[in-house]
TrEMBL record, chain A:
Matching CDD domains: USP-like
Region named Disordered: 142-165
Protein name: UspA domain-containing protein
The organism of origin for this protein: Nocardioides dubius
UspA domain span: 2-144
Gene3D superfamilies referenced in this protein's UniProt entry, alphabetically: HUPs
Pfam families for the chain: Usp
Lineage: Bacteria, Bacillati, Actinomycetota, Actinomycetes, Propionibacteriales
Family as reported in the entry's similarity comment: Belongs to the universal stress protein A family.
InterPro entries the record matches: Rossmann-like_a/b/a_fold (IPR014729), Universal_stress_UspA (IPR006015), UspA (IPR006016)
Automatic annotation (TrEMBL), chain B:
Keywords on record: Cell membrane, Membrane, Transmembrane, Transmembrane helix
Membrane topology according to the record: Multi-pass membrane protein
TM segment ranges: 28-49, 55-78, 99-124, 136-155, 167-185, 205-222, 243-266, 286-315, 344-365, 377-399, 411-431, 437-458
Compartment(s): Cell membrane
Name of the featured protein: APC family permease
Domain of life of the native organism: Bacteria
Xref: Pfam families: AA_permease_2
Signal peptide range: none
InterPro entries listed in its UniProt record: AA/rel_permease1, APC_superfamily
Amino acid sequence: MHVLVTTDGSRQSLTAARTFKGFADPTKISDISVIAVIRPLSSVAFADEISDRAELGDADLSFRAEAERAVATVAAEFEGWGPTVHARLRSGSAAGEIIKAAKQLHAGLIVIAAGGRGLGGGVLVGSTAQRVQHYAPCPVLVVRPQPRPNRPRRPRGNRPPNPRT
Amino acid sequence: MAVVETSPGRGEHPPAAELTRSITGRLLFFYVLGDVLGSGIYVLIGSVAGEVGGAFWIAFAAGVSVAAMTGLAYAELATKYPKAAGAALYVNKAFGNRALAFLVTVSFLSASFAAAGSLSIGFARYFLELWDVPPALLVALVFLAALTLINFIGITESVVINMLMTFVEISGLVIVIAIGVWYIATESPDFSRLVEFETSAANPIFAIVAGVALAFFAMTGFENVANVAEETIDPQRAFPRALIGGMVAAGVIYVLVAMVASLVVGSTDLAASDAALLEVVKADVIGLPLGFMTTLFAVIACIAITNTTLVAVVTQPRILYGMAREDVVPGVFAKLHPTRRSPWVGLIFSSLVIATLLVIGTLVVKAGGGIDLIARLATVTVVLLLFIYVLVIAAAFKLGGRDESEQTFRAPRALLGIGLVGNLVLLVYVVVDDPTSLIWCAGLIAVGGVLFALEYLFGRRNRPLSAERGDPSTTSTKEA
């Protein structure tokens, strides 16, 4: 089976990859494709929030490099686990490209994070995850954010949550 | 939109994958055309006509030429360094001066603020043709808020919507040109209008320069093309073609529209109108019902202005994001909304700056101080962009021969030279003619200065919250 592990550079997506690895049986998986989609027309085409920050040269902001690093970071999670790991970068609309990739690769499963906590938890559902669920050609594992710790936070919880491995 | 894949052996971690890009030459062309077309002609044609008189199409022709020569420099540099940072990157590569690169970035951001402000007011004036109830300032502010929301949600990411809006933009100008053709065919047009100068300036040359300075605003926007540089397929071929092709196409449309407007309406009436291009439609040259045509055209104008403003609204948080990553503005600008993945702090901040600009501008105009707000903000944009364009052309000269390969596009040096002189002449003229604009420029650049000061003073407090940021090392990664 070919599994598509998606990342948007968020900690949630790394958590999703780890969740998947936590229960899946590597002997039944032939390939894992870690995929990131760069959105060229958006304000921030891609942001890597999961790799050790390696600042690029000052004026040299490169969304491509960000996406490459994020994919490499997620791919590293599956290092030595068994299945062949592929890194894939696409460009365009996130949900559309993920679905296209799943079709082309005859993926057996898509792993995707459902967006963050904070305001997003109730009000805004991750639209990419939602669209992928609706139109994917295969089963989709949507990893929801972990429940909040009891300590009440400020309502502006925009920080990426700490993933617990 | 193809895929590049790498398949290392089992157990190895994959080498860095190569990105396959998604912006084709054609998409790039429409991106340039859409971005350039909306910005000026709908909004500014009246002001330009007022400066020059019936011959104001010459101002558009000259403005287009200077801008296209600047576009050549952008095309050359973008093919050499296809990165999103644009002008700041080129200047930094050429002069190796971080302070100058910072100034360029802040100027670009400020120009974008001023342009968005001017466009918002332009939108409001056309909107009031449809529904003349709310005050213009309110319409402009609601418009701005709506665009910010759209950008937050991420609708701007659709390539298809982008293309559709560009087609609508072109259709509006085609309507104007068609009216002109009809007018020439059926009435007896007074062609002498096309060479008339009705101006307060002593010399027609000055009148034209004044007109060009304003008309130049109509050509701005092409520099935003750097946004998608990284994602462009085969940039060495696509960039020169799309950039120059888009600008020349826009230029031809502009000159034709300006001629038609001059023939059908006359410069005096154009200058007096709030929504000048609508006067051409209102002249009732063709037989279609006037009410319908007016509404249709006002809607088209609104869409055109929306398209261009959207690009500005998308670009501003991106610039702030890049600056936050360099640690020259506070780190919150690099925060993305967890669900939407949009830089919401930068978005809100940008819209607040533009809103403030609009409110202050409206108050200043009400108090009787200075010129029409659209022209004022357009001038501010032009001053800042001319400054950047001069530096970019200089950077193209300085970087000539460096980082070149066989495919690199090389702009003709003579044209670059003319472009440099043209930009400088305009810059000097605008500043001498309207020194007040410098105050506005300084005010906007000060916003960038304040952000830098905040980061400089409190940056360390920011850093633990975003623990990864602020490491100046350019190489090491976890993977390396």
